[in-house]
Design goal:
Helix content is 64%, strand content 0%.
């Protein structure tokens, strides 16, 4: 598992470096974005939201994701894909 995680980390660093060389973004920007995303999607951990159980955490997370999509925050490329293969 350590080796596989190292491979994933290498890819992240490599891709971030390629984009940094093009002037698009750097690793620091990636870290800032993931930090903001984690705080936004987990207010029960990073904010003052209180939850009763894990089911409420999931419901809140789904509601936050819907609000992000409605606001146009980073729509997924997969949103355009059909949910099932044609028969």
């Amino acid at each position: 598992m350590r080796e596989e995680l190292g491979d994933v980390l290498f890819h992240i660093l490599f891709i971030a470096q390629m984009h940094a060389e093009k002037g698009q973004f750097d690793l620091e920007a990636v870290c800032r974005e993931i930090g903001a995303k984690m705080k936004r999607r987990h207010p029960h951990v990073f904010g003052s939201t209180h939850v009763a159980d894990s089911a409420e955490v999931v419901r809140n997370w789904q509601q936050i994701k819907r609000a992000e999509r409605a606001a146009g925050l980073r729509p997924s490329l997969l949103d355009a894909c059909r949910p099932a293969c044609p028969v």
